[in-house]
Amino acid sequence: MGDLRDLYQEVILDHTKSPRNFGRLETPSHRAEGHNPLCGDHLTLTLEIADECVREVLFEGAGCSISTASASLMTQMVKGKTTSEANELFKKFHAVVTSSMDTEIDIAELGKLAALAGVRKFPVRVKCASLAWHTLQAAIRGDQDFVTTE
Ligand code: ZN
């Protein structure tokens, strides 16, 4: 599992230091706000979705390194995807972070999502890593309600 741990640290560090797609769209077609009260993570997603395709997605907010890195990674992965592909990615992500420690992670198949498998050890961190994805789901559904991991 050495490779996975290295990947986890490398990806988290990289995305925490320089978050991708950070900001806010002026006139988003979709938006949602998410909050993880356990850790104090808070983020706002603004998206431009047209023809069921995520053309643009930006996030802003403040949170711990895991939530920031996960949001950054999420925006990078779903941009240019259809909303159903984005939902598929969410399912994969969810399966990874809720899998047991002895479940083999296929780095080749999952790419950078595999990096987030590192949070499996820490249930509290799973919420940090999930926040951006839950907020994305709410935004795609057109659910304007405040999303909370609780
Ligand atoms: Zn957090």
Q: Strands, helices and their partners?
A:
Elements lengths: L1 H16 L12 E7 L4 E10 L2 E10 L2 H14 L4 H15 L9 H4 L12 H19 L5 E2 L2
Parallel strand pairs: 1-4
Antiparallel strand pairs: 1-2, 2-3
Helix pairs in contact: 1-2, 2-5, 3-5
Bound molecules: zinc ion.
Zinc ion binds next to α2.
Describe what this molecule looks like in 3D.
It is a single chain. The protein has 150 residues and is of the alpha+beta class. It has one domain (2-145): Sufe protein. Chain: A. The protein has five helices and four strands, in the order αβββααααβ. The protein has a four-stranded mixed sheet with strand order 3-2-1-4, covered by helices on one side. Strand 2 and strand 3 (53-62) form a beta hairpin. It is globular. It starts with a helix and ends with a strand. The mean pLDDT is 90. Bound molecules: zinc ion (ZN). Zinc ion (ZN) binds next to helix 2.
- Main sheet: which strands, in order across? 3-2-1-4
The unreliable regions are none
Ligands: zinc ion
Largest sheet: 4 strands, mixed
Report, as a whole number of angstroms, the end-to-end distance: 31 Å
